[in-house]
Amino acid sequence: MYTPLISAQQLQALQASGQPLMVFDCSFELMKPLEGDALYLQAHVAGAVRADLNRDLSWHSDHPEPVEGASTGSARTDIAASGGRHPLPSRTHFAQWLASVGFDSSMQAVVYDRQGANYCGRLWWMLKWVGHEAVAVLDGGLQAWQAAGGAVASGPEAQRPASTFTTSPSKAHATGWPGSGRWRAGSHQFWRDQPRFEPSVWASSSSAVAAHCDPGALIASTDKRIRCRQPPLERPP
User: Fold this and answer.
1) Residue 121: which of 106, 103, 104, 139 has the closest Cα?
2) Which tens digit of pLDDT belongs to each residue from 67-87?
3) pLDDT tens-digit profile of 45-69?
4) Measuring CA to CA, how many Å separate 27 from each of 3, 44, 47?
5) How far apart (Å, rounded) are the C-alpha atoms in residues 129 and 124?
6) What pTM did the predictor assign?
7) Order of strands across the sheet with 218-220?
8) Residue 163 and residue 105: Cα distance in Å, rounded?
């Protein structure tokens, strides 16, 4: 089992072994929501399943979800599991999506993107959240895979037969940056690209509010970590 990381060479060996495996391409561009699909069609790890932040990994109010255990009074699953611009779907809805793409609990999951693991980390966490332990981020993303001579395909992949995926107790917890040992428990951490804190970027986007943080908080961007020293930005009325 591989977690939290897997190298390109380890993934090649895993593919050759014939063990149950599914690779997910999570490439995405926040300012160009359709760009992720286009990038996938241009080039992806051969056999990889597309996992889109907007379409597959977020809850949509116009796609109502089933009500789980309505007759027993169990918690509803027709509402988002979190808030924000990309709210989490319920665990039940996410499990249904996993099953629809042919993923099951016997498989090793490998997730990647080409944006410095800025988006595939969400799927890594979500799989842990529904109780799946065997999930790893491809170290270096698609770029490292191509540099290692890994098989690459273009265009759409054939649809896999649906499977059954059953959730189990969550294995997700706050850990900080894997292997860093530098982020203390309870510290504020913001995972954002550095430009998203700049008014010149968010003012021209669909977002009405810039990302902001409290002084002393840590920001993890795709290329560096910085400490937020400026006061929080004022939200517009």
Assistant:
1) 139
2) 333 322 334 445 545 445 667
3) 999 999 999 999 987 655 444 433 3
4) 20, 9, 15
5) 9
6) 0.72
7) 189-191, 218-220, 225-227
8) 10
